[in-house]
Structures are given as C-alpha cells and as structure tokens.
Amino acid sequence: MIESLLIANRGEIACRIIRTARALGIRTVAVYSDADANALHVRQADEAVHIGASPARESYLVGDRIVAAAKATGAQAIHPGYGFLSENADFAQAVLDAGLIWVGPNPDSIRAMGLKDAAKQRMIAAGVPVTPGYLGEDQSPERLKAEADSIGYPVLIKAVAGGGGKGMRRVDTAAEFADSLVSCQREAASSFGNTDVLIEKYILSPRHIEVQVFGDRHGNVVHLFERDCSLQRRHQKVIEEAPAPGMDAATRDAICAAAVKAAKAVDYVGAGTIEFIADASEGLRADRIWFMEMNTRLQVEHPVTEEITGQDLVEWQLRVASGEPLPKRQDELAINGWAMEARLYAEDPVTGFLPSTGTLDNFHLDDTVARIETGVRAGDTVSPFYDPMIAKLITKGTTRAEAMERLAFTCDSVLTWPVKNNAGFLAALLRRPEVFDASIDTGFIAKNLESLVVGVEMSDPLLEMGAINIFKQAGGTDVAIAPHKYDGELDDVWTDMLGFRMNAPANPLIWMLADGELRSSRIGSTRLGVGSLLWSNGNEILIVEKGWPHRFSAARSGGNLAGGAADGAILSPMPGRIIAVDVLAGDTVTKGQKLVTLEAMKMEHSLTAPFDGIVADLNAIEGEQVTEGTMLVRIEKDS
Fold first, then answer.
1. Domain covering 569-636 in this structure, CATH number
2. Distance between CA 616 and CA 634 in Å, rounded?
3. What is the DSSP letter of 129?
4. Which residues are catalytic?
5. According to the model, what pLDDT value does residue 493 have?
6. Is 3.30.470.20 the CATH number for 341-455?
7. 252, pLDDT greater than 70
8. pLDDT of residue 489
9. C-alpha distances in angstroms, 45 versus 19, 31, 102, 259, 522?
10. How far is the CA of 525 from the CAs of 129, 185, 490, 521, in angstroms?
11. Which intervals hold domain Lipoyl-binding (predicted)?
12. Which CATH class is domain 132-201?
C-alpha cells in the first residue's frame, strides 16, 4: 500500500481524499496557492507546500511544481482529484517519469479518451454506439457550419478537449452558429488550450446517464452501475442520483456492458466514467442510448455511487494504484437504496447565478440526514480564482422519494452569509412534481428557470412583522415597536412567508445573527425568548431580548446583476478578466444586448444593456484584469 500521498488539488475533493488516506494510514501532503494558504485541505493534511500565486495557471496547473513538491516531501504517489491536471496525459507521464505512482489511468488511456473526436472513433471501432455527428479534422468555420446544416438543427458544438460543461454550445438555428462557434472556441482555448471542436446532433429529449467503471492492472474491469445527471444548467450538473430512475434491468445490463466494453477498449486502469446520452422521449431504451465521452478520473458525483454500493471509491483508487486487484468482483456488487447529490454553489440565482465571493462569516450545513463534502468552514473565504462550488450535499434513502425529501430538507437548512448560495433553487427544483416523477430531461432547468428562481426584497414593514412573528411564535406576548404599539394583529403576508429568506423557499426555520452569534428559531421554540423591536433599517433589526439589546441582521441575499443597473452604469460583478468587448463608445444598443464578456471563476459571464440607449462611457479593455465594482460601461437613454 502507498505510504505517502500528495494531493494535486484543492477544496472538497482534497479533503475527501485526505479522509480516506488517513483511514488507510497514509501520510498526506497538500499543495496550495496564495489564495488557499489557510484553506481547509491545507489544515487537514499532514504537510503542505506552497506552489504559486492564486490564479490556477500559476499554481495548480503548473505540473513541474507539483512534482517537485512531491519529491521534496518524500511523497510516493500523486492523486490529481478532478479538474486541473487530472486528465492531463503529459502530467501523468511526468509523474511516472519522476519515479512516482500516478493515482489514475495510464497516460495512453487518457490520451485515447481525452479528445472527444478520437474517443468516438475508437468507440465506433469497439462496437459502442455513438451519437451522430461530425468528427473531422477540417476545422474551418465554413466546413463546421456546413456539417451542422447537414446534421440538422439543433446541434451541439463541443470542444474536443472539453469537460465540465465548458467549451460547449447548443445552436438552434443556422443564424446563431457563427457567434456560438467563436464563443465556444474562445472558452475552449482559455480552459484547455485547444480550439478544435466537434459537432453533434442535439437530442431533443435527452437524459444524461453515466456508468462508473473501474479497472486494475490485472486485467479486471467492473462497473458500479449507473448515475443519472440530467438536471443540468448550462451543461453543468446540478443534481445527480443513483440509480437512474426508469432504468429497467435489461437496459441497465446493456448500458453497463457497453461501458465495460469501452473501458476495455483503452486498457483502462483506475476510476473512470463512461457518459451516455439517452433519447428519453419514449422512456429509457437500450437502442436509444449513445456514448458521449469518457472522463478518465474520479467524478464530482462519485459519492452517490458510494452510497448505493457501500464502496469507498477513493480507497479503490489507492489500492489499484498500489498494484492490488479490484476489491470486489462484478457479482459481488449490488445496488442498495437510492442516493442523491446536490452541488452547493456560492452564487446568486436571482442575478443569473452570478458567483458570489467573500468571507463566509456564517456557514451552516445540516448533516442530520446528509453526508456533507466541503472544503470550507465558517470564516473561510470564497475566492474568485476557482470554481464556486463550496459543498456537496448527499442523501440516501430506501426509496428515491425518501432520498429526495432528505436532500430538500438539507438544502432548506443551508445558511451562508453574506456569501450567497443556490440552496433555495436546489430545494425548489427537488420539490417540482416533474422532478419527483423523473419526467425531466437535460433542458428542464432552462425551460423552467423563471419559476425556479424567485427573488423578493424584504421591506421594513416585512422585517418588523417578521421579528414580531418570531417572538410571538416563541411564546412572547408583550411585543412593542417604537414608535407605535403593536396591536396584536399580524399581517397574513408574513405568515405566508414564514421562514422566508432570499435564497430559499418557505421554511419554518428562521436564521438571524445576534451580536455575531448565529441563532435560529422554529415555530414553538423559545430559543429567542420575548423581545421588543426597537428599529429596523431594512438590513438590521435592533431587539431587546430578556432586557438586553441585540442587533440582528437578516440572513438574506439580494442585489442586481451588473448590467441591469437603473442608472446605466455597468459594474464588474466580481474580480475577473475581460475577454471580449462587443461595443464601441457612441454605439446605439438595445436592452439585453451583450456589451462585455468577463471571465471569472472558470466561467464566462455576459454583461448586457439594461435598456435601449447609447454607450456614453467605455472603460472595458479586452485582456484587462478588473476588480469587483469597476465601472466598465455606462449607457445613457437615447432621448
């Protein structure tokens, strides 16, 4: 067994790997950037090495520094986690060339499956069904558009080196193709250093089904059944579950057999995922499921597979890397129960899911019925340099309904303040009848986004009534509001919104901050006692509780997306790099027109015109780094 392990990653996946390594008696080494000097994975590891500046390209993506850190600390092996260098064949080879153990597949396997076009050609040769599309070497815009026209719209443009939803665009009409191609290639160049794309037929009722596979160095390959990852936004998974709802035994046998065949075709070793797209217009059928791609690494959603199989996949990785055979044979693996996972992001659904950065002054995740995987604690900082996912919430039940309700409960209980989160959106999604019935496809969120994201500002009267209701429900009877006496009649509007917070649905749990201390109150609780509301300014409430004054801040979020400012000033919503400026000073623009594209937290964010008008000021310069709040464009209404 490996005795010492360097983890070439950060955040929750680094913490996850450390946990299993520690259980196996393996010494762990963390690496960190400037931004992560005090990160949780650094604090949990036995040793930590600084590898560079905050941007990933100056730290976590510098393979030479990571290898050097392993050598300097005496680590025997490197585990790449997911993202960053996990699917970089050259890095894997460099690890092996340095005499270290690579916890992952052979570099040749990564290369074989790393480019989507070559991977599909190999799968065709292996007899694995693939989605119709164009995989050619001619990458001229004219040829690509001609192929898309021939396939028939809608089509999907996908970066051949892509992953994680990046470098991917759906195109519904021929008129959209040119702009979508440019945007896709630009994102692909930034994320993967490769602008080549392929074109696929877009399936109109698609389900995303993937199969977990595992191979060892003794020729054994098994599957650990399937996951359904159809609930996606912008091609990024939001909620995952295992097994896939509506999957009958015959279809499961067929898709899992195809996954094993795909893994064997590249002599696969370690953890991998074969991703399929299913045409679910008539339910899941073996003859309507096609290979999309293979991820040659551990997946973000691996915990749901662990929950239904009872296996620790990180332990499997470490044992296989140590030369051991797979811990289980295929006939020893079975599905037990149902598991679901939600990705908790530091983002504001009300403002178009704009990432939210800053210090987590308060951070609460309820682990009563959930497994929590996170890389942050209260007081940590959500950085603009990395992906905004701050935790994974995983629940298991004997039935799908039980797992789903437990996950919704866990989402309801999330609190991050002042950093915003998507927990309310997740809970709303889980409680949709279409999701409960599994009558969804990968476009469900996009089609229903408006009804899933509801933002309401709390006015002073609502705050006052809310505070009153908290104390009356807690048993208080003598509640006064300066400067007038409360008459005992509570407006129904607050009763209907009991438990309201901006990023969550109605919930009997109310969170507030009292002199820096996190407090909560449920109906019937006497935790907050009897109090008097002295004043409210819309953000804070001063209350006398048991004779002592306390200033409370409502744990809520809000605000407008930069680009929607009423005065026409378009501010940078976060630190980032300007990658495109689509207007010139003096240009006439229409409401919703794209003005500037900002790259931050590994994603592109388009800032648009808030109304029809003229570009009065333009301070955005392509390639420039900007800080949060920088005025980029100012639009004046055309008089």
1. 2.40.50.100
2. 6
3. -
4. 297
5. 27
6. yes
7. yes
8. 35
9. 9, 9, 19, 35, 38
10. 58, 56, 19, 6
11. 559-636
12. alpha beta
**Within 13 Å, how many C-alpha atoms sit on residue 288's CB side?**
14
Ramachandran angles phi, psi of 64, nearest 5°: -60, -40
**Residue-range domain boundaries for the chain:** 4-103, 132-201, 341-455, 460-554, 569-636
Report the range out of 204-208, 251-255, 416-420 with the highest average pLDDT: 251-255
CA–CA separation, 603 and 190 (whole Å): 10
What angle in degrees, to the nearest 10, is found between the helix axes of 423-430 and 444-452?
A: 110
Average pLDDT for 122-131: 89
Just give the CATH number of 4-103. 3.40.50.20
Q: What are phi and psi of 479, to 5 degrees?
A: -115, 125
Q: Where would I find the H helices in 279-397?
A: 302-309, 313-321
Tokens describing residue 300? 């973000």
Arithmetic mean of pLDDT over the chain: 83
- Tokens in use for 273? 């995922």
* The dihedral sign for the CA sequence 149, 150, 152, 156: negative
Choose among 129, 173, 178: nearest CA to 152: 173
The residues facing 550 across adjacent strands are 543
Encoding tokens for residue 115?
Answer: 């480019």
Q: Find the helix or strand (DSSP H, E) in which 315 lies.
A: helix 313-321
- Core vs surface per residue 535-570: b (16+ CB within 10 A) or e: ebeeeebbbebeeeebebbbbbbebbbbbbbeebbb
CA distance 615 to 303: 49
Count of CB atoms situated within 10 Å of the CB of 235: 17
* The amino acid at 232: Q
Tokens of 540: 């804070």
Contacts of 97 (CB under 8 A, 6+ apart): none
Cα–Cα distance list, 99 to 78, 87, 348 (Å): 11, 19, 45
Q: How far is CA 269 from CA 39, 231, 361, 569, in A?
A: 31, 29, 43, 54
What count of other Cβ atoms lies within 10 Å of the Cβ of residue 213? 23
Strand order in the sheet with 540-545: 517-522, 509-514, 548-554, 540-545, 531-536
pLDDT at 261: 95
Among residues of the chain, what percentage have pLDDT more than 90? 59
Q: Hey, what amino acid is at 439?
A: S
Give the range with max mean pLDDT: 149-158, 209-218, 591-600, 627-636.
209-218
**How many whole angstroms separate alpha carbon 568 and alpha carbon 485?**
42
Higher-pLDDT residue of 470 and 439 is 439
What global pTM score does this model have?
0.74
| Residues β-bridged to residue 212 | 273
The phi, psi pair for 276, rounded to 5°, reads: -125, 155
